[in-house]
Design a protein that fits this description.
Number of strands: 0
Strand content: under 5%
Distance between the termini: 34 Å
Shape: elongated
Number of helices: 4
Structural class: mainly alpha
Radius of gyration: 16 Å
Order of helices and strands: HHHH
Number of domains: 1
Length: 116
């Protein structure tokens, strides 16, 4: 059986994988900065960008072989959506979520594949 698909597909996939891997440190840095700047009294702006970034990381990480990183990003994203759904959230709930985000970022910086 011969391959009749797009001959450049695997080359583009490898390139996208390399781009994801090389951009991961800056993505993690941005997540950390947004987390540090999140004001629990007015979280909307930072929380919206955090949610978007976590969503992107979750999908891309799994696609490019960083399964654990992707699953952790998805879990953080889903918990963030819950926090954002309420009009008032206790500062302690935000603090717990921000601690989890910090742990995720640090683990990703150490070894993003070790999260599997």
């Amino acid at each position: 059986m011969s391959f009749t698909g797009d001959p450049g597909f695997f080359s583009r996939l490898a390139s996208a994988n390399d781009s994801f891997a090389s951009g991961l440190p800056s993505t993690l840095a941005r997540l950390a900065a947004l987390g540090a700047g999140l004001d629990p009294a007015a979280p909307a702006a930072a929380a919206n960008e955090l949610q978007e970034m976590l969503h992107t990381v979750a999908g891309s990480a799994v696609t490019f072989g960083y399964r654990g990183l992707g699953h952790h990003a998805r879990a953080l994203e889903q918990r963030l959506r819950v926090l954002m759904a309420f009009e008032a959230v206790a500062r302690s709930d935000w603090s717990i979520w921000l601690d989890e985000l910090g742990q995720f970022v640090e683990a990703g910086r150490r070894d993003p594949r070790a999260l599997d």
